């Protein structure tokens, strides 16, 4: 069976990272969402994969190439502009031969374990179209309300008018026949009508996912997804090719990759992740749910807590990075503080593209875009967004954008 | 409690024994094993653990033998050790036995055999049987004669299967108070403690009765009486279940699957011919005393029935837990005992029915499993037709039983002149809307209940409160919750609060209150006063309610409106979901909770 992975969505609410990379290239627990998806597909025996890429698609192509390093055969389909799912599906038509079933994947969700094993098991049971469904934690309006009778899906409301009732939603995983391409065309590229046809005339069964599932929509969802993955880690894995000084404390499921150096006095409290070729200086405290991407340098006495650093970042001495997401090649000067709560300890709201969105979180740090430079001695207010490539001079206090 | 599987085949067994015990794992699973004849000796592979764990250590698959038996154990005698796992072999290794049940006189037999020089390896009653057969074989030189002589000495309950090197093409089996079934296939015959052992391979089955033994080979089988060796002719029945249904389909767990099958289970209960209902109602109308018996979930179903019969038919029925029935039984020919059992094999319920029958009572039962012991024992049987229930925790079977009791109560109300035609029709209409209402609930509330379950999964102590007919609902909901989450949950009538329970209320205890629809008047008001009592003491209260009540609860799950007669069943489904999602949040073994077994066929 082949697979079609959609990564072309603009993901405009995932500021500031959507300005420089597709959402599927967001990093959690040491790997991008797309890398996890591809690894899961491979585990499920699916190696022939077409990926639809949109804006910043070159990031995907440059990272995965022909897929041989992952044991996959990857091909790419380019989608210009935000044309939607129907358009993405139709563009990939030539990659599939008629009269076969294939796996369709929305590339921007994170699951705690491999969803394709259960999906394919459901397909083997019913030998008919399958749609993965799940109950999201907080209600999300983005994945359509599903109505079930047994496992048979009776109705899919793609754009529900009253969200939050507690329905199952599409989890973004499907097994569908290649007739889908003509259905999408005949429905005038209207997915609502495609779903109608699937439920009323074709017949589609649900495969119910009960494990963790997160749709990464807002920047703080990256932290939740990171936590979801790290919560499945049970043991410490320290590479033989990592260099650890004496007097490094390791507690719980800590992962350290090859080529990294951990200096004396550092404390790594799992679950946490140190990628390849990192430098973790003396007396650094890496607290749980921190993910430090490859090639990062962390200076003396830095504290990391519940944060995701994509990679190749430099974090100067005596800084605190907590409840924050730090993009690639970010340079943070020494003594920088990401303040992670307000004085009134109320949930923190962020300005996302002009509208105020409540994160529901009382502790929230900063979201720092790729290649931003932050001078020494800065204090970033809770919920600060630093755009990609921004430069912040030394000793500036950045207030939160209201 | 345990599961037996056996195969006698034209072809090598390969993984059929493994599959057989795998399908039976829900009956109990602390250890398992297989035995088969190879090169004129018996090989036994067994160990502690689930079937998959034992398979990975001892290889239960790819067997080249043509005849074998297997067992999955749930300990009653002796600890959970490799030695105590079945199959058990005799001293000379020529006989291997698997057994469900309890041999009452095994100590005496064991002492006698030890004096005769037999050496025992385990603490089990079962091993005695293997040695006893060997002992009798030494004298008779005939396996069947030794088997019969052994059976005549055994007291207690058993389902047995045995293989021997002296007759290596056959499986010997027997039944006494513990179910055993022979599966008749085209290229093999099977034995099993229930259909699931071989439903993948054949749907044709012959059921052994107490005091019968069977001899099964690849191309034939015979059933004889232990007493006189007479051959018994028995009909071959076709199992109506689709093996497809026995699998999970698109669900992560059988429990969720079976919760989602409740609209179908309710429809099946509503589709049962009214004549069957009326025949039983007639007997109940004539009776001077009616017992409703069940144990565990089915006892709470019986309790639910008590409220229904009082409300709809103005009839007193006595709900009694089957395990206590013998101490209370005042049966006589004017008594009807109505038993409720999903499996139809529940030991306590079966014994209670026999007890009552001996005293001349009329017996009836609501059961799910066709051809089960209880179904065949009673005078009136209502087969609920809910389809196989695999999860140890009963959901759809219990709901269907409640629907059937409602039908009985309505009809009895009509017969007794308590219900007018109009109210009867309204009640029946309400029942027929129930499947759709459950579907709506499953579709539109699952997410809310899951979110609540994940939010509160850290809470170790729960109080589930209900008044009136919501009291048995609270009890059954609490049982669901404790079975599958391993948390401490107490079900209780709301009125008990002031009489002791209130002292428990603090920040370490959450309370779930089953609130009836507001139009139920006083029942609603009194239930609300329970909520206030708990909150006044700082307790956290979640309401399962039909009407919005701002400020009354700390949290509320609102159920879609329903008729008074079916309303209690909606929060029951809600509580099943709460139990299920709390269990998944806590990563419990949902379909096979620790220490529990699906069908309790021992005392």
Write structural notes for this entry.
The complex is a heterodimer of chains A (402) and B (603). Chain A has 402 residues and is of the alpha/beta class. Chain A has 2 domains: 2-225, Alpha-Beta Complex (Spore Coat Polysaccharide Biosynthesis Protein SpsA, Chain A), CATH 3.90.550; 237-398, Hexapeptide repeat proteins (UDP N-Acetylglucosamine Acyltransferase, domain 1, 3 Solenoid). Helix content of chain A is 17%, strand content 33%. In chain A, strands 1, 4, 5, 6, 8, 9, 10, 11 and 12 form a 9-stranded mixed beta sheet that branches. Chain A has an 8-stranded parallel beta sheet with strand order 14-17-20-23-26-29-34-37, covered by helices on one side. In chain A, β32 (349-352) and β33 form a beta hairpin. Chain A starts with a strand and ends with a strand. In chain A, 50% of the residues are buried. By secondary structure, chain B is an alpha/beta fold. Chain B has 3 domains: 3-239, Aminohydrolase, N-terminal nucleophile (Ntn) domain (Glutamine Phosphoribosylpyrophosphate, subunit 1, domain 1); 248-419, Rossmann fold (3-Layer(aba) Sandwich); 445-603, Rossmann fold, CATH 3.40.50.10490. Chain B is built from 17 helices and 24 strands. Chain B has an 8-stranded antiparallel beta sheet with strand order 3-2-4-1-10-9-11-14, with helices on one face. In chain B, strands 5-6-7-8-12-13 form a 6-stranded antiparallel beta sheet. In chain B, strands 16-15-17-18-19 form a 5-stranded parallel beta sheet, sandwiched between helices. In chain B, α3 packs across α4 (126-140). Chain A binds chain B through residues 118, 122, 125-126, 130, 135-139, 146-151, 165-168, 205-211, and chain B through 244, 247-253, 256, 260-261, 263-264, 439, 442-451, 454, 584.
């Amino acid at each position: 069976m082949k697979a079609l992975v959609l990564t072309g969505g603009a993901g405009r609410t995932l500021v500031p990272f959507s300005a420089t990379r597709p959402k599927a290239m967001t990093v959690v627990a040491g790997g991008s969402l797309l890398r996890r998806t591809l690894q899961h597909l491979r585990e499920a025996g699916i190696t022939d994969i077409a990926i639809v890429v949109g804006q910043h698609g070159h990031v995907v192509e440059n990272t995965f190439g022909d897929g041989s390093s992952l044991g996959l055969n990857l091909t790419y389909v380019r989608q210009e502009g935000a044309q939607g799912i129907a358009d993405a599906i139709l563009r990939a038509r030539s990659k599939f031969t008629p009269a076969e079933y294939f796996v369709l994947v929305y590339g921007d969700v994170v699951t705690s374990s491999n969803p394709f094993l259960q999906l394919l098991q459901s397909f083997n049971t019913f030998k008919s179209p399958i749609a993965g469904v799940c109950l999201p934690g907080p209600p999300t309006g983005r994945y359509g309300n599903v109505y079930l009778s047994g496992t048979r899906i009776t109705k899919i409301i793609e754009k529900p008018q009253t969200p939050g009732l507690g329905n199952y939603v599409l989890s973004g995983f499907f097994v569908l026949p290649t007739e889908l391409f003509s259905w999408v065309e005949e429905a005038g590229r209207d997915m609502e009508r495609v779903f109608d046809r699937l439920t009323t005339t074709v017949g589609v069964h649900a495969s119910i996912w009960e494990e963790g599932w997160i749709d990464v929509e807002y920047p703080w969802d990256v932290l939740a997804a990171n936590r979801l993955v790290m919560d499945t880690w049970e043991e410490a894995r320290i590479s033989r090719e990592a260099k650890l000084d004496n007097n490094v404390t390791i507690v719980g499921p800590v992962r350290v990759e090859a080529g990294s150096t951990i200096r004396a006095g550092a404390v790594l409290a799992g679950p946490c992740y140190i990628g390849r070729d990192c430098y973790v200086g003396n007396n650094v405290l890496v607290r749980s749910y921190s993910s430090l991407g490859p090639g990062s340098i962390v200076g003396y006495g830095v504290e990391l807590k519940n944060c995701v650093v994509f990679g190749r970042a430099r974090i100067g001495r005596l800084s605190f990075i907590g409840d924050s997401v730090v993009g690639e090649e970010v340079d943070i000067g020494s003594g920088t503080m990401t303040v992670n709560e307000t004085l009134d300890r109320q949930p923190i709201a962020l300005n996302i593209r002009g509208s105020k969105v409540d994160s529901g979180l009382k502790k929230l740090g900063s979201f720092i875009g790729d290649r931003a430079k932050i001078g020494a001695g800065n204090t970033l207010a809770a919920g600060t967004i630093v755009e990609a490539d921004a430069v912040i001079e030394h000793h500036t206090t950045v207030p939160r954008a209201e | 409690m345990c599961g037996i599987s056996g195969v006698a085949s034209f072809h090598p067994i390969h993984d059929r024994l493994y599959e057989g015990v795998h399908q039976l794992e829900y009956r109990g699973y602390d250890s398992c094993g297989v035995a088969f004849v190879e090169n004129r000796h018996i090989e036994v592979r067994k160990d502690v653990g689930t079937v998959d764990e034992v398979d990975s250590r001892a290889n239960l698959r790819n067997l080249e033998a043509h005849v074998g038996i297997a067992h999955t154990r749930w300990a009653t005698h002796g600890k959970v050790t490799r030695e105590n796992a079945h199959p058990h072999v005799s001293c000379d290794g020529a006989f291997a036995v698997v057994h469900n049940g309890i041999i009452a006189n095994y100590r005496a037999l064991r002492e006698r055999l030890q004096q005769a020089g037999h050496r025992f390896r385990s603490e089990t009653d079962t091993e005695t049987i293997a040695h006893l057969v060997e002992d009798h074989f030494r004298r008779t030189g005939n396996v069947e004669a030794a088997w019969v002589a052994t059976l005549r000495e055994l007291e207690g309950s058993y389902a047995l299967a045995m293989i021997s090197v002296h007759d290596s093409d056959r499986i010997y089996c027997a039944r006494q108070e513990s179910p055993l079934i022979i599966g008749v296939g085209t290229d093999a015959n099977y034995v099993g403690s229930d259909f699931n052992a071989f439903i993948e391979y054949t749907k044709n089955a012959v059921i052994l009765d107490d005091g019968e033994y069977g001899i099964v080979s690849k191309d034939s089988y015979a059933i004889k009486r232990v007493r006189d060796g007479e051959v018994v002719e028995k009909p071959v029945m076709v199992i109506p279940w689709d093996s497809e249904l026995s699998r999970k389909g698109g669900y992560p767990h059988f429990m969720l699957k079976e919760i989602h099958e409740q609209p179908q289970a309710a429809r099946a209960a509503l589709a049962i011919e009214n004549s069957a209902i009326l025949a039983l109602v007639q007997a109940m109308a004539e009776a001077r005393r009616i017992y409703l018996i069940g144990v565990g979930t089915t006892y709470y179903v019986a309790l639910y029935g008590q409220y229904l019969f009082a409300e709809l038919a103005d009839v007193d029925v006595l709900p009694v837990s089957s395990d206590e029935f013998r101490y209370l039984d005042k049966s006589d020919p004017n008594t009807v005992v109505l038993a409720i059992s999903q499996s139809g094999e529940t030991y306590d319920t079966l014994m209670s029915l026999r007890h009552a029958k001996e005293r001349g009572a009329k017996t009836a039962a609501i059961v799910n499993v066709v051809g089960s012991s209880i179904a065949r024992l009673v005078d009136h049987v209502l087969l609920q037709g809910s389809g196989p229930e695999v999860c140890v925790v009963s959901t759809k079977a219990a709901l269907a039983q409640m629907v059937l009791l409602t039908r009985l109560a309505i009809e009895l109300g009509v017969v007794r002149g308590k219900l007018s035609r109009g109210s009867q029709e309204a009640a029946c209409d309400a029942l027929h809307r129930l499947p759709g209402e459950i579907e709506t609930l499953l579709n539109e509330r699952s997410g809310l209940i899951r979110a609540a379950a994940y939010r509160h999964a850290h809470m170790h102590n729960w109080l589930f409160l209900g008044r009136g007919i919501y009291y048995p609902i609270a009890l059954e909901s609490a049982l669901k919750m404790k079975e599958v989450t391993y948390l401490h949950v107490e079900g209780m009538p709301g009125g008990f609060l002031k009489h002791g329970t209130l002292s428990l209320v603090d920040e370490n205890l959450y309370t779930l209150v089953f609130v009836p629809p507001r139009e139920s008047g006083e029942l609603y008001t009194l239930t609300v006063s329970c909520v206030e009592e708990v909150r006044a003491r700082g307790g956290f209260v979640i309401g399962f309610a039909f009407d919005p009540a701002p400020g009354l609860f700390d949290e509320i799950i609102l159920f879609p409106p329903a008729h008074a007669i079916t309303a209690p069943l909606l929060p029951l489904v809600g509580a099943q979901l709460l139990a299920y999602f709390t269990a998944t949040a806590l990563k419990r073994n949902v379909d096979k909770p620790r220490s529990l077994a699906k069908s309790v066929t021992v005392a």
